[in-house]
Amino acid sequence: MIHEQYLTTSEFAKACGVTKHTLFHYDEIGILKPEYVNEKGYRFYSLKQFATFDIIEVLQKAGTPLSEIKEYLEHKSPARFLSVVEEKRKQLILEQKKLKRMEKLLQTTYDMTKNALSVICNVPYTENQEEDYFIVAPLSSNGAENEDMKKMGEHYEYCAAHQIELTYPFGTITVKSDLEKKIYDRPAYFYNKLGKKCTGEKVHIKPRGKYAVINHKGPYDTLPKSYEILADYINKSNLQIAGNAYEQEILSYLAAEDPSEYIIQIAIEVVSKD
């Protein structure tokens, strides 16, 4: 009669698609106890317990801790069920958005790194570039690394707190006045590219227009040499500096171990002298 009314632990586990050890654990913590235990200690489950297992499975896959599931099962009601489901639905929506952002970041990084392998390095050229939107953090005027690290930490905390969608690339901005003074090693801002147009006190718009560009290959401390090459190219090409310089890493420590393999693109906004 027992075998006709109940399923053994093995049968119930197989029907649910889990191991017997999972059911043993659920029994131990009191979340899903067998309906019947015989005198030899063998556990048996009834068909109606599939409903309880389904609730556990759905809530657990939605990220609900077993302790919360147990508490819900002990005080189950339609209103409470709706509340739990709505809370988990909101969490899943946020998680889906996070996964989409991560997928976009990985794709952008992949495309950027692949493109870096085919660019011509250390040779200046001009190109028209589109408008970009950056969120920026000011850097110290004296190049103090500790101070800059603190500011960058605050920058990422701000972005996280305001749910600002960041994308690659990231980089630095050297302002026009410093370029004209040939100060190439003291960027004024650190930036992250934004995924869409927006406004705000920390938003910087990179103008659409003509840029003198060089893909610097080498460690960061050799960047001033590429700035000098680019400045000479601008002068000889009957151009003049019209705006800021934008550095962006297109092949960095993420993909290259040796700093001599890094590729950083420098783009300076220019106009014709005529």
From TrEMBL:
Q: Which InterPro entries match?
A: DNA-bd_dom_put_sf, GyrI-like, MerR-type_HTH_dom, MerR_fam, Reg_factor_effector_dom_sf
Say which species the protein is native to: Lacrimispora xylanisolvens
- Keywords, ordered alphabetically: DNA-binding
User: What is this protein's record name?
Assistant: DNA-binding transcriptional MerR regulator
Q: Does the keyword DNA-binding apply?
A: yes
Q: Which PROSITE patterns match?
A: HTH_MERR_1, HTH_MERR_2
State a single Pfam family of this protein. Answer: MerR_1
SUPFAM superfamilies named in the record: Probable bacterial effector-binding domain, Putative DNA-binding domain
Q: Where is the HTH merR-type domain?
A: 6-75
Which is one GO molecular function term here? DNA binding
- Name the SMART domains for this protein: HTH_MERR (SM00422)
